[in-house]
Structure to design on (313 residues):
C-alpha cells in the first residue's frame, strides 16, 4: 500500500510540475496542452515505460538456449524469493550494470549488461540479480520506472524552453496569461532538469539500501553482492556507460559516476556505505576483498561468445 501511495504522489507531483512549465511557456493554453501531455505520459508510463526503457538501451531477451546459466540463476533466485519468474534481458554494453523494470511482479524484467556477465563471477552475478529481484519483492519497481519516463518528459520540456529562448519564441505576455520572457525560459531550462533529478534522488536512495539487505537474504549471503558492488564501483570509472540521465536511478550503481558534474546529483547512496552495511563493518575497518582471479571461467567465455554474436548482428 505504501508504494501505491508513493506512485500516486509521484504522478501527481510530476503532472503538476509539467502543467506549471506549460503555463510558463504558453499561458493557460500551454497549461492545457501540458495537462493533456501529462495525462498521456501517465498512461504510457504505467503500461509501457518498461518497454520504453528496454528499447532505449537496445536490450534483447535472453533465452535459455542463448544464456542458460543466466536464466538458471534468475530462476533459482526467483524461487528463493517466492516471486514469479521474470523475463531476462541482456543490454549490449561493455560497462557492468543492471536494472529491473515492470509495473508489478507478474510483469517484471531483469536486465543486465554484457559487461556484467563478462566481468563478474557466479557469486557476484547472483548477488546483483538478488538485489534486482529485491526491488520486485519490495514492490518499488513501478515508481522507479515511472520516474524515469516522467523525468525524461520534464527534461524534454526544459530543452524546448531553452530553444524557445534562443530563437525568441513564446516570449510575449498577453491577456490570456501568455508565456514568459527569454530570461525566464533560460531559468526554467535549468530548474526543470534539477527538479527531475531531485525527484529521482527522493525515490532512489532509501530503496537501494533496502534492496541490498533484501537481496542479501534472497542470495543467502551478503558477500556476493558486496564484492559485485566493489567491482561495479571500480569499473564504472574505467568503462563509462552512455546512459540517459533520466534512467540513472534505475541501475544498481550510478552509470554516470564517471561524469563528475552529473555525479554531483547522484541518485544512489555511496557504494562504500552500501558495502559497509552489507558486511556490517565500518569503511576501512577490515581488509579489502581480494582481487578476482586472472582469466575467465566457462560462464565468462559463454558470455563473451554471446556478446560477439550481438555485435556481429
Amino acid at each position: 500500500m505504501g508504494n501505491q501511495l508513493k506512485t500516486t504522489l509521484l504522478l501527481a507531483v510530476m503532472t503538476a510540475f509539467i502543467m506549471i512549465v506549460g503555463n510558463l511557456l504558453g499561458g493557460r493554453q500551454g497549461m492545457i496542452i501540458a495537462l493533456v501531455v501529462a495525462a498521456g505520459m501517465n498512461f504510457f508510463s504505467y503500461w509501457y515505460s518498461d518497454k520504453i526503457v528496454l528499447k532505449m538501451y537496445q536490450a534483447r531477451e535472453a533465452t535459455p538456449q542463448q544464456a542458460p546459466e543466466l536464466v538458471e540463476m534468475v530462476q533459482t533466485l526467483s524461487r528463493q524469493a517466492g516471486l514469479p519468474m521474470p523475463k531476462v534481458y541482456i543490454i549490449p554494453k561493455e560497462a557492468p550494470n543492471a536494472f529491473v523494470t515492470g509495473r508489478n511482479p507478474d510483469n517484471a524484467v531483469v536486465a543486465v549488461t554484457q559487461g556484467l556477465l563478462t566481468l563478474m563471477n557466479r557469486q557476484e552475478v547472483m548477488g546483483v540479480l538478488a538485489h534486482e529481484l529485491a526491488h520486485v519483492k519490495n514492490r518499488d519497481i513501478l515508481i522507479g520506472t515511472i520516474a524515469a519516463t516522467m523525468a525524461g518528459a520534464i527534461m524534454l520540456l526544459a530543452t524546448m524552453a531553452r530553444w524557445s529562448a534562443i530563437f525568441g519564441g513564446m516570449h510575449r505576455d498577453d491577456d490570456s496569461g501568455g508565456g514568459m520572457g527569454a530570461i525566464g525560459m533560460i531559468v526554467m531550462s535549468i530548474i526543470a532538469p534539477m527538479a527531475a533529478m531531485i525527484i529521482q534522488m527522493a525515490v532512489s536512495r532509501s530503496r537501494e539500501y533496502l534492496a541490498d539487505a533484501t537481496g542479501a537474504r534472497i542470495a543467502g549471503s551478503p558477500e556476493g553482492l558486496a564484492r559485485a558492488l566493489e567491482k561495479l564501483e571500480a569499473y564504472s570509472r574505467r568503462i563509462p556507460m552512455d546512459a540517459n540521465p533520466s534512467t540513472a536511478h534505475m541501475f544498481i550503481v550510478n552509470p554516470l559516476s564517471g561524469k563528475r558534474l552529473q555525479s554531483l546529483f547522484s541518485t544512489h547512496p555511496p557504494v562504500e556505505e552500501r558495502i559497509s552495511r552489507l558486511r556490517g563493518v565500518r569503511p576501512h575497518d577490515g581488509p579489502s576483498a581480494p582481487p578476482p582471479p586472472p582469466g575467465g571461467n566457462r560462464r565468462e567465455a559463454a558470455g563473451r561468445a554471446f556478446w560477439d554474436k550481438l555485435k556481429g548482428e
